[in-house]
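Action item from last week, closing it out:
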Amino acid sequence: MEKHKKISVIDPITPAWNHMVRILFKPFEFKKWLTLGFCAFLSQCSEGGGSVFNNFSTTGNTYPGMYGWIENNFSTFITIACLALFAILALIFFVVWISSRGKFMLIDGIVKNRGAISEP
């Protein structure tokens, strides 16, 4: 019969702590700290957020002349709406790309014990 080794939650803490100390303090490099901090900042770009519609009022006619203008200039309105949608989607894709790149650079910096932006 095989003996089962007990799994410990505490055992991985010491090697992880020693790895963190080795990366951040042995030797202490301010440039690497700034680079890893910048990568951590970039990796959080697409996190969090909030709601745009918290203060959106659905009661009353907020813009009285808006519906008449849309009826008179429907093709212009569709063009503006499509351009706005394209710009919003491009911004979302850019922020997600920056965040993904930041996460990759942060993981690379931690694994390879270096502060690099363009190499990873």
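Closing note: The longest helix spans residues 74-112.
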